[in-house]
Amino acid sequence: MKDTHVQVLVVGAGLGGLSATLFLAQQGIDVLTVSKHAGTALHPKATGQTPRTMELLRRAGVEDEVMAGSGGPITIKIAESLQGEVFRTIATDEDAPDFGALSPAPFGMASQDHVEPVLLDRSRDLGAEVRFHTELVSFTQDGDGVEARLLDVPTGRLTTVRADYLVAADGHRGKIRESLGIERHGHGPLAGHIGIIFEADLSLHTAPGRTTLFYLRNQAFTGAFVSLTTDRRHVLTIEHDSRESLADYDEDRCTALIRTATDVPDLTPKILDVTRWEMAAWMADRFSSGRVFLVGDAAKVTPPTGGLGGNTAVQDGYDIAWKLAAVLKGEAGTGLLASYEAERRPYAQAVVDSSYRNYVERFAPHLMDDDVPAPIDYLELGFGFPCRSSAVLPEDDDAAMEDPFTSTGRPGYRAPHVTVRHNGSETSTVDLFGRGWVLVTLDPAWNDCGVDVPVLTDPSGRLGTRYGIGDRGASLVRPDGVVAWRSPDLVLDPGATVRRVLDSVLDR
Ligand SMILES: Cc1cc2nc3c(=O)[nH]c(=O)nc-3n(C[C@H](O)[C@H](O)[C@H](O)COP(=O)(O)OP(=O)(O)OC[C@H]3O[C@@H](n4cnc5c(N)ncnc54)[C@H](O)[C@@H]3O)c2cc1C
Hints:
single chain, alpha+beta, FAD/NAD(P)-binding domain, Glutaredoxin, 2 domains, eight-stranded mixed beta sheet, 11 helices, 25% helix, 28% strand, globular, binds flavin-adenine dinucleotide, flavoprotein
């Protein structure tokens, strides 16, 4: 294999790495992605795409394919077993929030082994090169770029790749963070788990067309059961004694555990796989070093109680992709890249805090004390978390999370979903974003501002108030759908004003 130069080398082809790859390729960036594994994930693991994640996937044209593998609405309970005493109902579709009022994108319930191949295929369609069985063995960086030694695992051949930037998406156990001297802190390992993936007809015991997630606490074990509605597959994961090994979980023992979990004493499940994994909570002290950026589990590890690890990985990939693309295309100065850590690390910390609290409530109530973080509202975390960095111009010091149902389009927050008319048809404002910078306004006086100014009409009359721009103001929205700046009214020289704002937030 010939030694090469690429603009971005991505190490890791999980949800984080493949998202970075896809979104970079979509921006026309020359990207090479390597994974030491033979292919994409074989296990369901991260199941569920919040509408915020789905908005990003929709921009890459893969929403339908992701939804094709999506189970129905989710029911979450803490219970003794599937039919046993229910200690608490956490979520049912009857009490689900009205996500349609927040986003044009749906809530997906696809599992990781379905989503990763979708991201991979689309990345390759867009021109990205993705090599499996290819391991990063070492790398160095200097002022101009990164030099990486890659091992082709089947042949043992080593090659050198030079890249302008390296995205480290090498997961929980990846070595890149350590080799940069970045430490991580947090609650650390919480519990060793045995995950049993099995096939069985449980249609009489779980709601058909629904995704069932039961946290289980009984005499035999503490664990969780997830039914992946689309193909009779289910996962039972249980905390295990660290002295035990996988060999201790033979077919008979797994079958007995599944029968206890499901309350079906004569069930004969087909055991598809048994794996060991570690529930943990970690946060990297920094998310970047020089030309290297950590995404997904390389940057933070969250307990899956909350379903946000995979979602955060996709969102990290999107964030670093648009920022790297802007710098590589000469549209932004390198200072923009500092906003990756400034924005993503506080969010990751909130995800870990919220998921850790969920872990204590659902798996380990004996750990509940004053040090356990306070609950965080799921919708505020998903839609109303602030971005505070040089890439936004906030109007005040208030950086509290906001209720997305009453959000007012303040800079630093996700631009709200409002149905408007554009090019003769109804569309969501959210669907205007993603291809570049967009100026949302109803006043044509803002037209020549050097960014996309879609011609909009506002039949519902809600745009002006939801964006805080009235009939004459404007809101400047970043490629990730976050408001960077707004003006409540028309300004004297709109073009010069917007260009000045862009110079500031893009560090140019
Ligand atoms: C049992 C379980 C259930 C979960 N449930 C949920 C859930 O319901 N919802 C949710 O959002 N999240 C969930 N998660 C978390 C989610 O799976 C992870 O957050 C997500 O997979 C992280 O993706 P990643 O791309 O950062 O890392 P990974 O998926 O771990 O990918 C790491 C990649 O790095 C590659 N790699 C590592 N080292 C090298 C090297 N030296 N050279 C080349 N390649 C390398 C690997 O081959 C792999 O491709 C769950 C996790 C587990 C374990």
